[in-house]
Specification:
By secondary structure, this protein is of the alpha/beta class. It is built from 13 helices and 22 strands. It has two domains: about 1-210 and about 400-454, Metallo-beta-lactamase, Chain A (4-Layer Sandwich), CATH 3.60.15; about 215-395, Rossmann fold (3-Layer(aba) Sandwich). The protein has helices at about 40, 65, 70-75, 85-105, 120-125, 220-235, 250-260, 275-285, 315-320, 335-345, 365-370, 400-410, 425-435; strands at about 1-10, 15-20, 25-30, 55-60, 80-85, 130, 135-140, 150-155, 165-170, 175, 200-205, 240-245, 270-275, 305, 320-325, 350-355, 375, 385, 390-395, 415-420, 440-445, 450-454. The model has no long low-confidence stretch (mean pLDDT about 95).
Length: about 450
């Protein structure tokens, strides 16, 4: 008997966490936090595990919406065994330690939820068993009622460094969880590798299910467009702000900008970035011969960028036209990208380049949806701000286009498909088109707290 229970990440993007019970072996796939909700509401519904077998947790990749709640899971289930790729383990050590002080600031002393400590993170990281891509390992829960173990292997998902799709096999039933997956090459990261076998149950992300693939051009085409727009700003004496996630988007955009400069398509100017992304850059370089890369000889260390956190006065960017890659990617209030954006929006020669997904409830979405000359209300502002800078939008996707998602279904030929990690329009589009093209497939739209028998 196999049961699937979503604890988060069903019908939305954030707090991805899914529970599988395979003949008495309890396996959790990811355990993330929602990027914009307050901490208690951002957690998956871990209370649904109170009467469940909880033996293992397998992490697909190290973005916070997939690992952010892991310390709370381990606190609640201290004997759980954790698995990931070596790269995800290394990144998690950086990002989870980085989040300790952030959570401490968000959680008041009288809150029921207590922040976790650096000591807890050290113990958690030490307990993660790391497995290379395609390395098969076996899991058997303490109360398993099957003579057969669950066989597991991790497949390169092409999303960020260390990202993995998770293949589980038990008693001739094969389950594949895509995690966040990309079916197109990025600047650093090649597209995903799928299992070379028929799948019975496919658990698939739907991030871009509602987005027309024609609006998501190839990476190189979009890079040339961005370079042309950046040249206009730089030549006029302005600077460019690009909000990015420190993990994944920073490394891809840094490489893209440098490549355009080396090809003579983008004016050579100062590049600024910093924070935890610099440490993640080092991990990328250290692993370039271990994982698949578009160019294994290229190192991010070759790029002569400057540290944005060493800039004493942001008026520097009015005197010295520059490109600034700043966290957070969604311009969350209080972050560097938010603080810089407040200044950028007031400068008529400047520009903000939006290069990734924006949650509709974030300041980044408000900025991305605005135009020069409009009035914009942002958190912390007493009155609406007139936008004087240019705002440009680009599609550098680290997630599969909807055509790519349908290609996954076609290639894996599942009998059942469970749709996760997408808003309602994305889930609806994917469900309709999967059924239209594959009438024999049974499709489920995952709902948090609602069990599915497989």
């Amino acid at each position: 008997m196999i049961q699937f229970l979503p604890l988060g990440g069903a019908g939305e993007i954030g707090s991805s966490c899914f529970y599988l019970n395979i003949d008495g072996t309890g396996i959790i796939l990811d355990c993330g936090m929602h990027p914009r909700k307050n901490v208690q509401e951002a957690l998956p519904m871990l209370e649904h595990l109170n009467d469940k077998d909880v033996d293992f947790c397998i992490i697909s990749h190290a973005h916070q919406d997939h690992i952010g709640a892991l310390p709370y899971l381990v606190r609640k289930h201290p004997y759980i065994k954790l698995f990931s790729t070596p790269q995800t383990r290394a990144i998690a050590e950086l990002t989870l330690h980085n989040s300790v002080s952030i959570l401490s600031d968000k959680l008041k002393e009288n809150d029921l939820l207590k922040p976790y400590s650096h000591e807890e993170i050290d113990l958690l990281i030490q307990s993660i068993n790391y497995k290379s891509y395609n390395e098969e390992f076996e899991l058997r829960g303490t109360r398993s009622n099957s003579p057969l173990p669950v066989k597991v292997s991790l497949q390169d998902a092409g999303h960020i460094l260390g990202s993995a799709g998770i293949l589980l096999e038990h008693n001739d039933h094969k389950i594949f969880y895509t995690g966040d997956i990309n079916m197109d090459d990025q600047m650093l990261t090649p597209k995903a590798v799928l299992p070379n076998k028929k799948i019975d149950t496919l658990i698939i992300e739907c991030t871009y299910g509602a987005t027309d693939s024609a609006s998501l051009p190839g990476w190189t085409q979009e890079a040339k467009k961005m370079a042309t727009d950046a040249n206009k700003i730089l030549e006029a004496g302005g600077s460019v702000l690009i909000p990015v996630f420190s993990l994944g988007k920073l490394q891809e955009m840094l490489t893209t900008i440098w490549t355009m400069m080396q090809k003579g398509l983008l004016i050579k100017t100062d590049i600024y970035t910093g924070g935890i992304g610099r440490k993640i850059n080092i991990l990328h370089d250290r692993n370039r011969y271990v994982v698949r890369r578009t160019d294994k000889d290229f190192e991010l260390a070759e790029i002569p960028y400057k540290d944005i956190y060493e800039v004493d006065n942001i008026s520097l960017f009015r005197r010295n036209p520059s490109i600034v890659l700043a966290p957070s990617g969604m311009v969350i209030e209080g972050t560097l990208s938010f603080n810089l954006a407040l200044d950028w929006l007031r400068q008529d020669k400047f520009a903000i380049f939006i290069v990734g997904y924006m949650d509709p409830d974030t300041p980044g979405y408000l900025i991305a949806s605005s135009e020069k000359g409009q009035k914009l209300s942002l958190p912390g502002l007493l009155s609406p701000l007139e936008i004087k800078c240019s705002i440009e939008r680009y599609r550098f996707s680290s997630h599969a286009k909807r055509d790519g998602l349908l290609e996954i279904v076609k290639r894996l030929r599942p009998e059942k498909v469970i749709l996760v990690h997408g808003d309602e329009p994305s889930i609806d589009w994917m469900g309709y088109n999967i059924l239209e093209k594959n009438p024999g497939i049974k499709v489920y739209a995952a709902e948090t707290g609602h069990k599915i028998e497989l």
